[in-house]
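Handoff note, outgoing to incoming analyst
You'll be picking up this chain. Sequence as last confirmed:
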Amino acid sequence: MQSVTGPGGQTLFVDRTEGKRGAKGPFHVVYTDERGQQRWGFFCTNCETVNNAVDSMGRVQCNVCSNRTKAEEWDAAHE
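Most recent structure output, in case you need it:
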């Protein structure tokens, strides 16, 4: 796994084999440990940041470049 620096200088680890497809580039899963046992969040490959948000529908949005995914589940009643 690739190491990246997170908030407060924390070392995080990006798993480039796992993630979600985004509009501008994929989001890869980020862990706090090299073994991939404690999931932390997502890494935006478009702007190479871990500054992302996930909403209750499972959508990931980058707070830097606005890269985003679609909801994992969709229900017309929510429209």
